[in-house]
Amino acid sequence: MNRKRSRLGAGLRALFAFCSLRAGGGRRNPNYPAAPALCCVFSFCLFALASCSGSQRDLRAVSALYADARYEAVQAWLAQLRDDYPDLTGPELAQFHYLSGMTAYRLSQPEEALHELALAAHAAREQPSALGSEQLALLYRTLEELAEKR
């Protein structure tokens, strides 16, 4: 996953450099009169992409996989996302642990599910808006079920 982000960033940087270069040793190229305007547009796009963290995009992708019941793929993505764990914000941590726990629950890994869901509940208490009301209800219901089986 880190490779995808770096390739994307390098591609955008190359595109920006291409647009900002002027042919003919610094003179404007009459074939590309809109190059300065394109530079502004691409600069804005680069800024917008940089402001949206890679882990947010990754968590959205993991959420989509979870919604499609592709639990093995979810675990693979989350294993890769663990490298970025120290950089996750409070809401991202809550989402990360929620998805980890619910995926482990769906794959019949009760100990892992209990651990991750307990971390998600803790993160959700510290960041009340991190999880939606449906997610919170399912989280606590699943925690109770796992605690009873223990």
Shape: globular
Tally of individual helices? 7
Biggest sheet descriptor = none
Task: Give the strand tally.
Answer: 0
Write the CATH fold name of the largest domain.
Answer: Serine Threonine Protein Phosphatase 5, Tetratricopeptide repeat
Strand content: under 5%
H-E string:
HHHHHHH
Helix content: over 70%
Query: pLDDT average, as an integer?
Result: 76
As for the number of domains, it is 2
Whole-number radius of gyration? 21 Å
Top-tier CATH class of the largest domain: Mainly Alpha
Poorly predicted regions: 1-26, 37-52
In CATH terms, what is the architecture of the largest domain? Alpha Horseshoe
Task: Write the topology of this structure.
Layout: H1 2-20, H2 35-51, H3 54-67, H4 71-81, H5 90-106, H6 110-126, H7 133-149
General description of the model:
The protein contains 7 helices and no strands. By secondary structure, the chain is mainly alpha-helical. It has 2 domains: 2-51, no CATH class; 54-149, Serine Threonine Protein Phosphatase 5, Tetratricopeptide repeat (Alpha Horseshoe). The longest helix has 19 residues, at 2-20. The radius of gyration is 21 Å and the shape is globular. The two termini are 36 Å apart.
